[in-house]
Write a structure and sequence with these properties.
Length: 340
């Protein structure tokens, strides 16, 4: 099918050049027609609000080559809605949902040969990006915005399916304040987690887990993915907190868990409950589900679930969501969107 020299089974999660990206500009109160760009570099005003004041939002979603050969996008309207929540919070021009969907479809079609074949665990990662590209030196919103959608083929984020990883809590760092910008997808949230994340990697942990910034009593989420736990009595528990980014993956898993007969609880989750879970995991578009079997906080070590592998319920959640995404089973929810 493809003439590209990509080893689809060895793809990780990193930038890889595809054909082109789509780019729209908002000027004088309206969005332009958009165009495809092959150049990976953009020219941006030296005084743009994105560069100086972090007026940027991003999204992440995936397109899959399904079993029937068609390429479909997973729940793009959810990302459109979330990007507009982010835009509103940091005073950027909104991207109408229809424009967002058109941009995503155009980008996927123009890079269609980069969608990994069915039967690999890969996907085309879609990265929408919105930022203030006009000049301001006083702190005011930009009058010009650029909206870009780039794509790249990706494999798995961490090596090997549902292999459990270790997480760490650093009480000397917070990710997001309760009434700050933790619930929207601004670039700066990732900047805030880079130092603790580099430290975590150096110390041998795959992920860091953040507690609520006010009391360090409740579980918030991991740096780039949501937290959920499964209990022995078939409950899916995920934190309710004002500083969590609402994950599309988490919402999908809640729905699937409910339809599998589990009770879904979205509520404040005290850290002291951690070792009462039969399994805990990180979830997000890039990782889908990453089980966590060990959490280290200072001198305390918490072992969660079986030391190797995972419990069958977690495996079933993973199998269900990935089978829908790859078109291996019928999509009972209408989550997959055709390109046309
Ligand atoms: C993007 C993101 C997630 C995952 O959201 P998905 O929609 O599932 O990809 C989780 N936490 C944070 C902080 C994020 O930025």
């Amino acid at each position: 099918m493809s003439t590209l020299s990509i080893d689809w089974n060895k793809l990780g999660f990193q930038y890889l050049r595809a054909n082109c990206h789509v780019r729209y500009v908002y000027r004088d109160g309206k969005w332009d027609q958009g165009r495809l760009e092959e150049d990976e570099n953009i020219s941006i005003h030296v005084a743009s609000t994105a560069l100086h004041y972090g007026q940027t939002a991003f999204e992440g979603l995936k397109a899959f080559r399904c079993k029937d050969g068609k390429v479909r996008i997973f729940r793009p309207e959810m990302n459109a809605g979330r990007m507009n929540n982010t835009a509103r919070r940091i005073c950027m021009a909104p991207v109408p949902e229809s424009l967002f969907l058109e941009a995503v479809k155009t980008a996927v079609k123009a890079n269609i040969e980069y969608v990994p074949p069915h039967g690999t665990s890969g996907a085309l990662y879609i990265r929408p990006l919105l930022f203030g590209s006009g000049p301001q030196i006083g702190v005011t919103p930009s009058r010009e915005y650029t909206f870009i959608v780039l794509t790249m083929p990706v494999g798995t984020y961490y090596k090997g399916g549902l292999t459990p990883v270790s997480a760490v809590i650093y009480d000397e760092y917070d990710r997001a304040a309760p009434l700050g910008v933790g619930n929207v997808k601004v670039g700066g949230n990732y900047a805030a987690s880079m130092e603790p994340h580099e430290r975590a990697k150096q110390e041998g942990y795959a992920v860091e887990l953040y507690l609520d910034a006010k009391e360090h009593k409740y579980i918030d989420e991991f740096s780039t993915s949501n937290f959920f736990g499964l209990t022995a009595d078939q409950k899916y528990v995920t934190p309710d907190s004002p500083s969590i980014l609402p994950s599309v993956t988490n919402k999908c898993l809640q729905r699937i868990a409910k339809d599998m007969g589990m009770v879904v609880e979205r509520r404040p989750v005290e850290f002291s409950e951690i070792d009462r879970f039969a399994a805990i995991a990180a979830c997000g578009t890039a990782v889908v589900i990453t089980p966590v079997n060990r959490v280290v906080r200072g001198k305390e070590v918490y072992q969660i679930g079986p030391p190797q592998g995972t419990i069958p319920e977690l495996q079933r959640l993973y199998d269900q969501i990935t089978s829908i995404q790859h078109g291996d089973i019928p999509d009972p929810y209408g989550w997959m969107v055709d390109l046309e």
